[in-house]
Design brief:
Length: 223
């Protein structure tokens, strides 16, 4: 092998090493205090995590207010409310993929951490929906609600509330930049009275075709 061929082979090797082998992927463990990766084309953990935290915190704060109708135990303390978390409805402009199940688990876990709520198993909820052949959005029909709650009660899980979560988005476009406003709404419906409590959290996110898009559209001197 002459010098020219050797240099050409070395150059090819260096390019391969610097660009990485095709089909090979690197990974690393992210520390708990590290910031989330910000998605370049759609929402991710940087949007969904704060949405869940804020929406659940607002709902818990409202539900911890004791009224004359709040049932209390023998010790005079308010009894926890048994809720049936029906599911998450995605009405945003994006396909949220595997985040849908993760959002359900995050919301359910946050509620279980509070003393004001008791949540029944999702498997029991799915089984009751399957047995009654009802969709979550049809439970507001009185006959359907009575049938659904009766099945849960027969399974040993009487409930006081239905909980719905809805993810929506609104998009504003300006030239090559886009702002998307993500809303997560939690709606708690009393199965005995039909009254509902609704709390919403919002996160706004900008998407840009160039690195200067953020500076150009969101600088404090621009109206």
């Amino acid at each position: 092998m002459d010098r020219r061929e050797w240099l050409a082979g070395l150059g090819t090797l260096m390019v391969s090493v610097s660009s990485g082998c095709k089909g090979y992927q690197y990974g690393h463990v992210i520390k708990p205090d590290a910031p989330n990766l910000v998605g370049s084309h759609e929402a991710g953990a940087e949007v969904f995590d704060p949405l869940v935290d804020e929406a659940v915190a607002k709902l818990l704060a409202r539900q911890q207010i004791v009224t004359a109708e709040t049932p209390v135990g023998p010790d005079g303390e308010p009894l926890p409310k048994t809720i049936c978390f029906v599911g998450i409805e995605n009405k945003s402009s994006e396909d949220i993929g595997d985040f849908k199940d993760q959002l359900y688990q995050q919301i359910d876990s946050r509620l279980l951490e509070a003393n004001s709520f008791r949540s029944i198993s999702r498997r029991m909820v799915d089984a009751a929906l399957y047995e009654t052949r009802l969709r979550p959005d049809s439970l507001m029909i009185p006959d359907n609600m009575r049938l659904f709650t009766a099945v849960l009660e027969r399974q040993g899980a009487p409930i006081d509330y239905l909980l719905y979560a809805v993810l929506t988005s609104g998009t504003t476009t300006r030239n090559s930049s886009t702002q998307r406003d993500y809303d997560l709404t939690l709606e708690l419906v009393n199965v005995h009275t039909g009254f509902a409590d609704k709390q919403t959290a919002e996160v706004r996110k900008g998407y840009h075709k160039s690195a200067m898009g953020k500076v150009w559209n969101y600088n404090p001197f621009k109206r």
